[in-house]
Write a structure and sequence with these properties.
280 residues, Elongation Factor Tu (Ef-tu), domain 3, Helix Hairpins, 5 helices, 14 strands, 31% strand
Length: 280
């Protein structure tokens, strides 16, 4: 037994050294890395119309991938199309009256020099022309508003995403800004992580990051630090002592590439930041 005792001690020391190296490299010591843990941010947007009306068509179901710019829903366009036609007709009527007023004013100017008309007639013709010009500009604006409202009967995807909820169905009457879909944005991917106060000075904007999921042998995603919060979080009171200051954490946002759509919103991830200065 005495012969095996030194061997057992030696084996125990070897095991402790191996564990120490594993922990050291896991925490990034000696490799110029900071290891952080976080989640893929949940980013949602409600899809709605900018005008009221009756829902005509919905083109996506829950779980569908929606590309940026895709037409997602439409309203019944008949009343808005009629408003456009009405505004167009009113503009053409004003245009005809304005053209006639321009001709009348020109004639009054030709006759004023030979005494064919009075100065009052000329002034009235000019005032009528100016009034119609103002009405014409107002009619142009009204037509543009009618066209804009017509275009608002179409709802488009603001970005790539996955459809979370289909809130309305065709035939539903909705008011302006009532949501018809909830879209989970998938691009760009934001990673929310926290860095301890002692490591904050080693993190800067644009720092390269590698993002790992919990899937064994999964894809490694690449990104960059895009936001560093200037305010400490999870601190209930003003911190004064050096010891307490070491417990502060600061929120980071990493913008990550997601070519295979493997990063899902809310997913826990591990982030490794490669520091530019080798750790002592």
């Amino acid at each position: 037994m005495k012969r095996f005792f030194p061997i057992a001690i030696l084996c125990a020391l070897v095991v402790l050294i191996v564990i120490g190296f594993v922990l050291m490299f896991r925490n990034g010591v000696g490799r110029g890395e900071i290891v952080l843990y976080g989640n893929v941010d949940v980013r949602e947007v409600d899809i709605s119309f900018r005008v009221s009306g009756q829902v005509n068509q919905l083109f996506f179901e829950e779980g569908d991938f929606v590309p940026k710019g895709a037409l997602m829903a439409t309203l019944i366009k008949t009343p808005y199309d009629e408003h456009v036609q009405e505004a167009q007709a009113h503009l053409e009527s004003i245009q005809a009256n304005l053209n006639n007023a321009e001709i009348l004013l020109k004639r009054r100017k030709e006759l004023i020099d030979i005494g064919g008309v009075s100065q009052e007639d000329l002034d009235n013709a000019k005032a009528n022309r100016d009034s119609l010009q103002g009405q014409f500009l107002s009619a142009v604006a009204a037509l543009q508003i009618a066209k804009d409202n017509f275009s608002y009967t179409f709802a488009y995807a603001p970005n790539d995403g996955i459809l979370l909820t289909r809130i309305r169905e065709p035939g539903t009457v909705v008011r302006e800004a009532d949501p018809v879909y909830t879209l989970s944005l998938s691009s760009p991917v934001w990673i929310r992580a926290y860095v301890a106060e002692p490591d904050l000075g080693r993190v800067d904007y644009g720092m390269d990051a590698k993002v790992y999921t919990d899937t064994k042998g999964g894809t490694v995603y690449f990104g960059k630090v895009g936001f560093i919060s200037p305010v400490a979080e999870f601190t209930p009171k003003t911190v004064e002592t050096t010891k307490l200051r070491t417990d502060l954490v600061y929120r980071l946002r990493i913008y990550a590439e997601n070519p295979d759509q493997g990063l899902k919103q809310g997913m826990p991830v591990t982030v490794k930041l490669k520091t530019r200065v080798t750790d002592d």
